[in-house]
Amino acid sequence: MAVLRSAPLRHLLRGLVSAVIVVAALFPIFWGLMTSLKPARDIVTFPPSLLPATVTLEHYATIFKAGALGFLLNSLLVSAGTVALCIGLGALAAYGLARFEFPGKRAVLVAIIAVMSIPVASLLIPTYTLIAEIGLVNTHVGLILVYSAYQLPIVIWILAAYYQSLPIELEWSAMMDGYSRFQALWKVVLPLSRPGLIAAGLFVVVFAWNDFVVAVTLLSSEDTRTLPIGIYNFLGFYGREWGPLLAASMVSTIPLLVIFVVLQRYFMAGMTNGSVKG
Amino acid sequence: MMDGQRTPFQAYRYLLPALVLEAGFVFAPLALSLFYSVHRVRYYQLGDFNGVQNYLDVLSHRLFLNSFLVTCSFSLMALALTFAVGFGLALFLNRDTSGSILLRTIVLLPYVIAMLVGSMLLKWIFSTDAGLVPLAAAWFNITSPTILADPDYAMAAMVANGIWRDSAFAMVMLLAGLRSIPPNLILAARIDGAGSFMIFRRIMLPLLRPAILITLIRLLLHFANVLTFPLILTGGGPNNATETLALRIFRIGFEDFDLGKANAMAIVLCLFNIVAVILLLAVFRKTRGGQSL
Amino acid sequence: MIEGSGASIEFRGIGKRYGETVALADLDLTIQPGEFVSLLGPSGSGKTTTLNILAGLISADSGSIMIGDTDVTYLSPDRRGIAMVFQNYALYPHMTIAENLAFPLQARGRNLSRLAIKAKVQDVADTLGIGHLLARYPKEISGGQQQRVALGRAMVRDPKVFLLDEPLSNLDARLRLKMRRDLKALHQRLRSTIVYVTHDQSEAMSLSDRIAIYQGGRLQQCGTPADIYRRPANAFVANFMGEREMNNLPGTVVQTGGGVVFKAEGLDLTLPSTLSGWARFHDRAVTLGIRPQGVQIGQRADATQCEAVLRLVEHAGTEQFFYAQAGGVELSGAAAPDTPLAIGDRVSLTLLSRELYLFDTASGAALVQGGDLAA
Amino acid sequence: MRTKSKLRLAVLAMAGALLAPVAALAQTVTMWTFLNPASETPRDRALKQIIDKFETANPGIKIKVESQVWFTLAEKFVMAHRSRSAPDIGWVNGENMGLLVNSGVAEDLGPLITSKWTPALRQDLVLPQAYEWVKTGGKQVAVPIMALSIVLFYRKDLMREVGIDPAGIKTWDDLAAAAAKMQRSNGPNVERWGVGMHLSTDKTTMSFGANALAAAQGGKLFGDKCSALLANENGVRALNMQADLIRKHKVASQESFAYTLDDVIEQFIAGKVALASSGNGRFGNVMEKATWNGKELGMLPWPSLDGKKPGPQIMSGWFASISKDSKQKEAAAKFVAYMTGPDGMEIWAEPGGQVPLFKSVFDKPVFKDAKYDPLRQLSQMWADAEVWLPAECNAARTFVDLNTATQRVVLGNVDPMAALREAEAASAGRQ
């Protein structure tokens, strides 16, 4: 508490812990970045140098020549589509759960928890068969639908909690003012839920942008390939050529970093309101 | 109601699209998985019904017990340590100073970068070729361990991967929990004469129960089912020391081309999840008794 | 002076700023042992800041605080020997009432036996009439009962000083009156020092030995309820005390052939001879203040008079309040409940001399008042 | 309700926009391969040249290459077939031939390609068995593009340095001794290991032990119905030989248990191992990228346990097959015939660095140059010790089983025979 226990020792300790945290969190990423900038021959020399003696962008050139830009765009498209679908359906469903009592509510709640606990790995193969059956294998739509199905429960969960933290009187007064219930949701509840929407959206983006287990199963052609699959393929093409691999990794990381750094305060705020109150 | 007749089923107008999506892409595949698991499915071709034979086959395999134990020990170690680190971070970074906000963002980075990438970065660090491990070994003047080729070290590496990536998730969830505690309660306890430890144990911990439970469940499910860590970091080895149930499903399905058995295994993993969550809930319920006066 | 088991409190030059905003300016205030002092003022006036600094929840930028003979300026809250009741009670939702009451007794450095704690909890609960609720959880009892639990949690440690932060504001009107009485009785018995924050002047008046009234981060006046009501230090205090706002008539005092006249907008009020001394304020802009209770219907000898038209009448049970147009100003006044009043009536109004106040318009400082016949 | 149907429309519209398939041109033949014509390795360049030449000669046909990871290519091809999204042409590696043979997704290439061959062309084949190997029930499910075997790479410079004649390495003990001499240490850290082995259970192929075992069993790893022949005296000797390179001779890093073939090659290129097994197809690539003088790269015949005969060259390779669902089998077959015919083979040899599968190509004057000696050596090695494991067996995972058994013995202290019995059972369980 603020009442002064003024000790430079405490500050020192805090600084020390902070430094440890920063190094532990960032070192692998930093090391990967530095490696991706070293010429191939310098990468495996011993003892390793932390900073590249000569900086080269050759590995980045390699991966862009191998189509990384297309993969990047595919990832953007799939992530955006998944977020849109998840938020769209999730915002509606969460409202249904947050504001109504209805027969089967318990069953729906149990189903949501159940979906969160089904291992993705166990669904891969039948999902592939099913998606193939409706002709969506190797399409972005197929991937978006599957991603959304996996991520909807957490979106609903976050948003329902967020809605419940908003006073219901706001919707009532909107309805008094002549808005339909749906319009009240659209014009009053959703704008107020922005932190919740962003938090939910970020969870979805992290999943959609980073997934490779599902995508590696459902996608096959180069046109549709997302970035993690691209990287996974680099793993096959280049074997242990760490240069291009790490370069691709760095490229895949940047967009998400930017999003997160910009939105992290919403992320916290959106999670704060009620979603952990059970 | 203003927008039409009010019925008890009105809520379904909001829920239906989501329910349809879940039914189509989660529950239907699950049903299909169940169907496959009682059939012979070789080389991606549906064969005859063969009852529980697939289950008997996978459960009686030596590597089943191995992967079961690997999954259990990995999940428990990763869960305990990730939770502890995440909790520590949440407490340490609870205040909204600019330094804390920056640190929180930094801690979140391993969580937001692709698991594939993260595991690859760690593999690169742990591999002898990168030179870091031999370098560290040279400092301590010991023979350089081969981390990824030693069963114990490889497991430790996988646990480290879990902590490195997922502590941030635990931190976010627990921070959210901390935020939901009215600050007045902490102030009141302080004025009531409680010290930091007592406030933590008697006020914060009990009030964080829901957040802690949700964090534990989500982490447990994540760790019990994670495929990327073993697939990329350790390849399940050495000596299958890091071959989790999820990796085994993947192998049986995509390397042995036996979808019948893979799906039987998947159903087993599902049951494993359910049992794990029930156990966690039971443990949680039990501890509740201990906190009363 | 009241003697009691409480400790004295002394603020010396306490100041607190948030950036450019002055939350509290140079507060000097001494509270006697066993005294019940209310900190009164509108929101943002500095009363809660004072309380929080006293509790040690926030630290002051300057100055020092003594509780008894101890300088507590740099002590953490738990070492100040105080107890506090929060506005929303801050009951621990996961503990039963008994556990809530026991909590302060289990704090570090209090080596009480289980049995002793139990006895103490029961004792306090019985005193407050909540002995039968001990096994329940806070959300299972009513607001009034929660309030008592909060009070009980403060009492259980026998603190030298109680801090109460608007403890009654979450209760409905009747319960509030009952709790007010109980609180007063409790203070009579315990004789602890109580610092009580409120924005309700009637609460402050009825409970306190002394009232400290704040505005804009400054202590305006500190005194007994009667003192503050009768001798407000300035227009703000005068307006804040009392059920209704004063009539405030800006104008000037002039000496004419017929006597001393107060000239307001479109209205000349001839002051009675007893107030002829007010002529000395003729050279400044002043405001004439009078509480509605001082504006009555009918004529009276040697009092200020005027003619007015009734615009609005409110019945308030024990009396009636009316608004009447007199020249360019509107006056509010009070009448007995059975007086026949109709809107549009022309009436004669009497402004009781002892209810008249004169303030400096620019500074708001009280200049003189009709009650001081010596003036 | 109006707003809701609007929303539904919006969702449908969005789905529709994303669904719009990439319009395919009429005569575009799609091919899945692990190569990438945009890349620079010798084989990538060769594929590009082949496609360019073919497209110039056949203006109506465009070849669209979609690159895949080599170790999932076959399974992707079969799965894509099940979902009716298979490419026209799919490459399949020898290790995964079982998948192709057993799944029945490949078109019979007999009528389309091989039956059109002239008798002279038949006589010209370097490895006639490679074609017979992928016949099942009289149907030609694939044709070879390039033949490969896992060979032993060594560095001539290091051999010279320590004064060993490579020709003298006949047994595995000889190999271990040579490796020990070439190993370099600095304090507790080994800077260069004697041999690099890939004993991981991940994405792997034939290791030393598998070769030794096959040699001891006259080239056989499988009995009837794909039952693996592992749990016997030979198996124990082979396994111990492999394990001893790590635990007894200490000429291979324990990290071998985490290495895949790719890892080992990378080590070899970086000069961190003196001897390594590799697919011969990487010969050119290693020469080019080596951090040492690439000209010093050589290939050794496999040692054997008794030293009487060299160990077998277990043959594999890349094969082309055409999907049964292909809408343009004729065009696809035309390209496959070109890519695997004498014209294509010339390009696979130069710049591709592969052994051409027609004798006549090799006899051309251009290939008399000394730089093609390794290819000649290779074809000689094949002629001496060529072995084809049954195509219908899942051999790739049986190699994994053998690695697993080795790991069990070294890391788990399990009796070798017991470990091999488990491996045999595991192998039988998946056939």
Give a summary of the structure in a few sentences:
With 278 residues, chain A is mainly α.
Provide an overview of this structure:
- The complex is a heterotetramer of chains A (about 280), B (about 290), C (about 375) and D (about 425).
- Chain A has helices at about 10-35, 40-45, 60-65, 70-100, 105-115, 120-135, 140-165, 170-175, 180-190, 195-210, 215-220, 225-240, 240-270.
- Chain A is globular.
- Chain A folds into two domains: about 1-45; about 65-270, MetI-like (MetI-like fold, Orthogonal Bundle).
- Chain A has about 280 residues and is mostly helical.
- Chain A is built from 13 helices and no strands.
- Chain B has a single domain (about 65-290), classed as MetI-like (MetI-like fold, Orthogonal Bundle), CATH 1.10.3720.10.
- The radius of gyration of chain B is 23 Å and the shape is globular.
- Mean pLDDT of chain B is about 85; it is low at about 1-5 and about 290-293.
- In chain D, the strands form two sheets. In chain D, strands 1, 2, 3, 6, 7, 8, 9, 10, 11 and 12 form a ten-stranded mixed beta sheet that branches. In chain D, strands 4-5 form a two-stranded antiparallel ribbon.
- Chain D has about 425 residues and is of the alpha/beta class.
- Chain D folds into two domains: about 25-150 and about 315-385, 3-Layer(aba) Sandwich (D-Maltodextrin-Binding Protein, domain 2); about 150-315 and about 390-430, Periplasmic binding protein-like II (D-Maltodextrin-Binding Protein, domain 2, 3-Layer(aba) Sandwich), CATH 3.40.190.10.
- The chains are: A mainly alpha (about 280), B mainly alpha (about 290), C alpha+beta (about 375), D alpha/beta (about 425).
- At the A-B interface, helix 1, helix 4, helix 5, helix 6 and helix 7 of A face helix 1, helix 4, helix 5, helix 6 and helix 7 of B.
Which runs of chain D of at least 5 residues are low in confidence (pLDDT < 50)? 10-25
Give the N-to-C terminal Cα separation of chain D: 57 Å
CATH architecture of the largest domain in chain D: 3-Layer(aba) Sandwich
The CATH topology of the largest domain in chain D comes to D-Maltodextrin-Binding Protein, domain 2
Number of helices of chain D: 19
Structural class call of chain D reads alpha/beta
CATH architecture label of the largest domain in chain A = Orthogonal Bundle
Q: What is the top-level CATH class of the largest domain in chain A?
A: Mainly Alpha
Largest sheet features of chain A: none
Number of strands of chain A: 0
Beta-strand content estimate of chain A = under 5%
Total count of strands of chain D: 12
Give the domain tally of chain A.
2
**pLDDT average of chain D, as an integer?**
86
Largest interface: A-B, 95 and 94 residues
